[in-house]
Amino acid sequence: MGLRRRLALIVALIAAVVITCGGLTAWGVTRSVLRGNVDDALRAQARSFQEGPRGFRDRLRQLDRAQVSPYDSPYGAGPDPAAGQDPGGYPGGVPAPPARLGGPAEYAQAIVADGKRVIRGDVSLPVSDEDRAVIGSGGMVGPRDVTVGDAHLRMMTVGLPGIPAAVQFARPLNGTDDALRTLALVLLAVGLVTVGTAAVLGRGVARRILRPVSDLAGAAAHVEATEDLGRRLPVRSDDEVGELTRRFNGMLARLQGSRRALDRSIEDQRNLVADASHELRTPVTSLRTNAEVLLEDDGSIGETERRSILTDVRDQAEDLGLLVSDLIELARGDAPAREADEPVALDDLVREMVTRARRDHRGVSFAVEAEALVVCGRPDRLGRALSNLLDNAARYAAGDGGAVEVRVVPGPEDSAEVHVVDHGAGVPEQDRERIFDRFRRGDSARERPGSGLGLAIVRQVAATHDGRVWVQETPGGGATFVLRIPRQPDDDAAAEPTVPSGESATEPPDAAG
What region holds the HAMP domain (predicted)? Predict the structure, then answer.
């Protein structure tokens, strides 16, 4: 069953419950009012009869059983003139009150101490022990329902104080019952019509309310069939359905962005494969060539040339190792576990990395200006990030004799900054964020050695140390890479910072390697 039908059914059920409760209440109130009117009339008539007529009560006191018994027939109909009875009274000259014992009551009869009926109308009313109990007491019994033949009556018995008799009054309820049956039929018909109308209207309202949901289902089906994430739905309201539509549109937007990012990542990986293939082809080919030369040597290669070939083999193996190392470094993820964080003398670490860079890039001069600053982190990873920045700057320095400037200065918000400045071609503004992405290399970088992973590693290291890295233009041309790392907290200032070991870090700042 569809949601629209369920909503229509729910509306119809609610309407049915409301109509049923309302109808039962209306019917019950009407019944209570109609029967209450009959009961009020019976009580009023009983009180009126207890207070008069006096002559009739006096005659009842004088009656004895011999005088009463001839008229105890269940179907007696009052005085008989042919038998010498007074049409205006009963045996012994007992006068009848107007309209047979009490006026407007349609049925009435009098009973004496032994329960015999002495005066009655067209119907013989039933006499119970409760009715006999009020004879001569002035009490009342009822009103209660009784049935005589096909007649449904409401009856009440009233005792006459000081007189061994009681009078019963009854009014028919057939008219009341007919009215209640008619009312019940009318309420039933109205209820059925109302429930049907509610079901139809509920289906229409459900269709209107669920139209945005249907649109959502259609959009989802469209996306499933076409994989088109660019479709958006109009927001027609500010209610929950409108909020659902907004969330759906937002989800599509995020999925579309994720797909674009995935497409870019795939493209970057394709570029990486091409770059890595190029980078690997050269050292592998060279290694194979050198190996073949050594294998085919018949003694004609001198010792100096042999050592040169072996040196090339070593260097090419190191290049392959560095490429694999970069891939492994990035494979750790964007937030690798930070283990064994410790105070690090950033100025000393920078000088050590500059010393290594001078050895690897002998045609580039490095100048260092470093203030004594301590940060908290892992020396090996910070050293790797600094080494990548220095290698990147050295590759893009303006040819042989190019210069790279390195500065360690305090940064804002209790941080330390490392500025690596080159005077090469610089980085276009549109590429200044993307060059830190994995597998991202600028168009101009494809002609230079490298895997395109170094700057991605720098950003990863900065993130794991709660820092950041960015690139900006160098005045006069070139690029300035800035690595910002939070400084060591004051409460840890007493800890001895790690001083990098290895090569001396005290060479002159402007010395060339």
Answer: 207-260
Cα gap 501→504, rounded to integer Å: 8
- For residue 246, tell me if it sits in a domain: no
How far is it, in rounded angstroms, from Cα 493 to Cα 257? 45
Q: What are the average pLDDT values for consecutive 10-residue runs of the chain, which has 513 residues?
A: 75 86 89 88 80 56 40 38 41 35 59 68 78 82 85 86 81 86 90 86 78 78 79 76 81 85 78 64 76 80 82 77 68 53 91 89 89 90 90 77 89 92 85 76 52 79 90 89 88 56 43 36
The total of other beta-carbon atoms located within 10 Å of residue 400's CB is 8
CA distance 436 to 424: 18
Residue 135 belongs to a domain: yes
DSSP, collapsed to helix, strand or coil, labels residue 435 as helix
Q: Is residue 455 in a domain?
A: yes
> Is the CB of residue 85 less than 8 Å from the CB of residue 91?
yes
CATH assignment of the domain containing 460: 3.30.565.10
Domain's final residue, options 125, 144, 179:
179
Task: Count Cβ atoms within 10 A of the Cβ of residue 416 and give its class: 0-12 exposed, 13-18 middle, 19 or more buried.
Answer: buried
Please give the single-letter amino acid code of residue 297. Answer: D
How far apart, in Å, are the Cα atoms of 500 and each of 47, 357, 504? 120, 15, 9
Residue 246: CB atoms within 10 A of its CB come to: 13
- Residue 162 in any domain: the answer is yes
Integer Cα distance of 502 and 424 in angstroms: 30
DSSP 232-271: ------SSHHHHHHHHHHHHHHHHHHHHHHHHHHHHHHHH
Residue whose structure tokens are 């209790």: 414
Single residue among 179, 208, 228 that ends a domain in this structure: 179
Q: Taking the C-alpha atoms of 349, 350, 352 and 358 in order, what is their torsion angle to the nearest 10 degrees? A: 170
DSSP codes, 126-187: ---HHHHHTTTT--EEEEEEEEETTEEEEEEEEE-TTSSEEEEEEEE-HHHHHHHHHHHHHH
Q: 384: which residues sit within 8 A by CB, 6+ positions away? A: 329, 457, 461
Residue-range definition of the domain harbouring residue 418? 342-492
Separation in Å, CA 367 to CA 25, 204, 360, 374: 98, 80, 15, 21
Angstrom distance (rounded) from CA 386 to CA 504: 17
Task: Say if residues 109 and 102 touch (Cβ distance below 8 Å).
Answer: no
Dihedral sign (CA 375, 380, 383, 389): negative
Q: Domain total for the chain?
A: 2
Strand partners, 408: 370, 418
